[in-house]
Specification:
150 residues, alpha+beta, four-stranded mixed sheet, 6 helices, 4 strands
Amino acid sequence: MPVTTMAARGGASLASASVPSLERRAFELINAQRIANGETPLVWDAELGRMARLHSEEMARTGVFDHTMAGGRGMRERAHSSNIRGWSVMAENIAYNQGFDDPAAFAVERWMRSVKHRDNILNANFTRSAVGIARSADGRVFLTQVFIAR
């Protein structure tokens, strides 16, 4: 199922939409992909949302686009410091873009074209997820999606 951006459909631009609405849009588009591919929709997890947004905010602030941040803090270390416990499997997708009418849809579209990102999105073991988004001073939109199985 291709992801259709608002611009491609002739709709209003979402580029200036609130961060929470973009996060939910990306999450809903990801669940649409899961459903279209025969998988169960993910459940939004607020703890993961906070973790994901903090990571996106750090990438936006520092300009570093990576799963591992200052001091070698990777996804597992960030989960631990966010008090996220009781998971058996965890994964993360990150993206950034600039200048697109629907940055959430553009990120999901690109994730679905990447084998590793697509595998995370469609992994039947994952049951909970959330997306965190932040904008940098220069207008880039950073996205982090965290997946877990509990």
